[in-house]
Design brief:
2 copies of one chain form a homodimer.
Chain A (H helix, E strand, L loop, with lengths): L1 E2 L5 H9 L17 E3 L5 E11 L10 H18 L3 E11 L5 H18 L2 E9 L5 E11 L14 E5 L4 H9 L8 H12 L5 H7 L5 E4 L4 H12 L2 E5 L7 H9 L3 H7 L6 E5 L4 H11 L3 E8 L8 E4 L17
Parallel strand pairs in A: 1-5, 4-5, 9-12
Antiparallel strand pairs in A: 3-6, 4-6, 7-10, 7-11, 8-10, 9-11
Helix pairs in contact in A: 2-3, 2-6, 4-5, 5-8
Chain lengths: 333, 333
Amino acid sequence: MGNDNHPGEFDIIARYFAPLAAAELGGLGLSDDAAILKPPPGRELIVTTDTLSAGVHFPVDEDPADIAARLIGVNLSDLAAMGATPWVYTLALALADNTGEDFIKAFADGLARHQGTHAIHLIGGDTVATKGPLTLTLTAIGTVAEGQALRRSGAAAGDDIYVSGTIGDAALGLKVLNGELSGLTPPLGEHLLDRYHRPQPRVALGSRLYAVASAAIDISDGLVADLGHVATASGVVASIDINNVPLSEAAIAAVTLGPALKELAITGGDDYELLFTAPPSQAAAIERLSQELELELSRIGTIDEDTGHAGAVRVIDETGAKISLKNSGYRHF
Amino acid sequence: MGNDNHPGEFDIIARYFAPLAAAELGGLGLSDDAAILKPPPGRELIVTTDTLSAGVHFPVDEDPADIAARLIGVNLSDLAAMGATPWVYTLALALADNTGEDFIKAFADGLARHQGTHAIHLIGGDTVATKGPLTLTLTAIGTVAEGQALRRSGAAAGDDIYVSGTIGDAALGLKVLNGELSGLTPPLGEHLLDRYHRPQPRVALGSRLYAVASAAIDISDGLVADLGHVATASGVVASIDINNVPLSEAAIAAVTLGPALKELAITGGDDYELLFTAPPSQAAAIERLSQELELELSRIGTIDEDTGHAGAVRVIDETGAKISLKNSGYRHF
């Protein structure tokens, strides 16, 4: 693990980050130039990198443990979308002038908690100074049985479209955070805030999806945009019924207060649920998987043949009428 | 490869970065959530991550192609120090408000050149906005025959200490850049500037070192500091003769102008040469390797037993007198 030799940075690595590498011998205690990893036999590697920068991807005053949750969450969500089991990660920290040791301690404690939850280990990285805001980059490596990685490109006409959990909570949570959504009872507001601050990557689901799914993606840009990515990669079109999109109790309350928020729920980002497609013959297996994982898996629409508009996503209401969306894309925080 | 959905960022990935991933199928054209890699049989993986931030690790007005050279150089230098052959990399770009498309094009062209030189390929990454200066993180993955990774910890009493190439050019080049070193002829000044701007990772040497070396590290913090890392990891002490440290013609000219610069040469960073130790029985093999690679490999000192000061580095002059250094550490740019 490198550093800039600023006073205390060797100490910081030794004190806060080396313990996160203790259980993976290949990390060499973060004391060498690089890590040495022996790939598990019969497995392929899945590699993903995500960067979060203060003031863009999270508020500048975000709780350090929540920044750790988000950094781990967004990366493991990408692994989950490919069907991979998390293995190891590297961490690059560009520390702002005002990033103090208290922050680093709380951040490392947060990482430690998520390492435990997901059985991953730090193996290396870099700690440097930046003249700008705190910027963090995590590269996660997972493994998947050979040939069993899930892709965005496998959706076929006739497949059903599913999502895990509930949709739109994070985007609504951001509204709560910014004071743009009031009138919810405190527990419901808290639920949405929690979903925004602490994304839960669907790792257990991802590692089980290969047996049933034809394509998968994680919902980071928003349900409609990410479904569009699957449709584009697969050369198909997709239709979803907005009333089949699963909403949490808190999201239902929010939409009751402001009906326009329903569009935000299906276009807002940062949910980190999984979206996947599967042939109808898999419906019973998916229902069993849902029960086994105690995780809601909802059928929200179908994949159709490309009729000259590959990548198109049609959103319909209960009457079958097409809903026209003001924003199908998404901007973070 | 992710992005922030800012206008044009999908285009930028498609136009400038997807071509860098074209030859490695596992990168999936940067179009999926993550890359899929099949590890080569019988090889271990070497993983390293380095971050560069404008205004800290390179001047804010640095040529984009030189930033690419430095980013690739510092990471592949870590792989070389472990004896690895470069394989693939991910790239995380946190773009400043004023990072324009011209910059990105020139940066990507620079990456393409180094990919060709080192036979590496982009497989994924992230492109985001930051409210601070341009900050780049590269994670490089190399491979090495099982059990043949070089470590810092293998140096033993009686071993000789070697360095590749010439030492101190980059630190002297930074002095030239900052206008703190004048009086050199233009070609000599240019040579030092080139060594600062465009580090050459010693990849070919690194992949051949396992047969001869007992320990290795790349010189990023400075010769004395990095030798100290080897001595600490190996539980030994090290002695080098300052007159055996190989200097370029330009560095000799600089030291003639300012004799105090000799200390800078052995303590300044960013050379990205390799430092390694080897038993005396390997001297002839090292000489042959030097001829074969057409790369100077200089014996500069010896490893001694720990006499209660493990990690200590002694620098002596031609009379055997100990030279006391004002700064043995190093700060970048």
